[in-house]
Known about the structure:
It comes from Pinctada imbricata (Atlantic pearl-oyster). The chain crosses the membrane at residues 12-32. This protein is 52% helix and 10% strand. By secondary structure, the protein is α+β, with helices and mostly antiparallel strands. The protein has a single domain, classed as CATH 1.10.630.10. The strands form four sheets. A four-stranded mixed beta sheet has the order 1-2-7-4. The chain has a three-stranded antiparallel beta sheet with strand order 3-11-8. A two-stranded antiparallel ribbon has the order 5-6. The chain is globular, with a radius of gyration of 25 Å.
Amino acid sequence: MTSDTRLLVVQIAVATLVAYVIWKLILTVIRYRKYCEISRKIVLLGDYHPIWGSLHLFSTVTEYFDVVKKFIDEQRPKTYQGWVLFLYPNITVCHPDTARILLKSSEPKTKYHAGGAYRMIMPWLGDGLLLSDGRKWERNRRMLTPAFHFDILRPYVKVYNEVTNIFLDNLSRDNKRDGNVEISNYVTLATLDTMLRCSLSYNGNIQQEGKSNPYVKAVIRLSTLVLYRSIRPWLYWDWAFYMTSTGREFTKLCHYVHDFADEIIRNRKDALRQDPSQLNKRRLDFLDILVTAKDENGEGLSDLDIRAEVDTFLFEGHDTTASAISWAIYSLAKYPEHQQSIYEEVHSVLQDRREVEWDDIPNFKKLSMFIKEVMRMHSTVPLISRWLTKPLVIDGVEIPAGFSIDISIHAINHHPDVWPDHMEFKPERFSEDAITKDRDPFSYVPFSAGSRFRLDLVEGHKYVEVPEVVMRSEFGIKVRLEERHKDT
């Protein structure tokens, strides 16, 4: 190649690069003008900063939810926006009228958007039922339909009772030793123990290992890292995130939970390969269904698909449940009149029995209302998102395709136009009479037995909500337990 030819090649390459940059800049300017046009039509969350956008209003996720709560109490919006730096607006719906539009649509989750929480969680949970969409979701959901039948829970009541007995024994032991217990860790271990036993037939003495259980620690830390990244726009790009110590820690923990799931799957496949008749000798659990499921073409799930579903169920199945139970225990301790009423109902249903049976469950009317109110007050999953694949009119404003829209479940469950006394704890909101009135079905979005103790909160302890991937307590939930006798 002559020097003139080389020079020509370089000139063409430079010209192409310059043209590409100019084209990208033009698209960016057009997109930014569109952002500004939409922004003028939607109420802004607080004051706008020319550099930080809305990020100057808060420094943590907890502060963000506090700002939103005060803003909604004062402004009563159905939709609001907050700017991520000066780059783009983040639109959030916070009322049944606007949430309904997205929740009834088939729009996918925000795993395609750099700032989308679902995209940030994909390296951990994979493309399972929680995050997949379109044909893949439909195919896998069809294949796994037997796992979602309500009656599949019936044979596991014995397991629930066994896990609960270990849980209560641990609480009693440590309460006697320390005078109180921080219950979140105990609950998390119990729900993980339940999920592993029921869905994977795995009994690993989870609760006996206590706080040292590495899987629980990994899941909690992964949740924290996802939220840490979600409020730091400079970490939205993968190359930037994985260069940091936080990104490297996230990767290491992902490898750990994947190895944990892979071992369980590998052991089950080996066991079924050696003795296929096992499937005829016992009830099928979730992992059996995953391993043996076939679609209409006779094709099963790939190893990666199976792991994604296992990771999803181990996390979503135990962590969200642990959040709801922990806040339920907190509410029992905070509202002793409801605690006593529920205790009396449970005692009335069980009589002299110590364990719950399947047919008892419909008889826990007060307990059911109580749990629903707990999940309204302390929304298990505070925020979800959708990605628009086509233009959508929300609150009178046409939002173009390519936008990410957040749905603030916590804000909906606390919107003063829907729940005028939203900070008051009232289980009667969910009585049969109250529900049959003209209540919008989208006004309450909770989550897309036998007490043996009297519970009290620990004086001087701070109980602070932290809206991470699930609703946690910043300083834990400490309670003091007093053993009940039959007549109390």
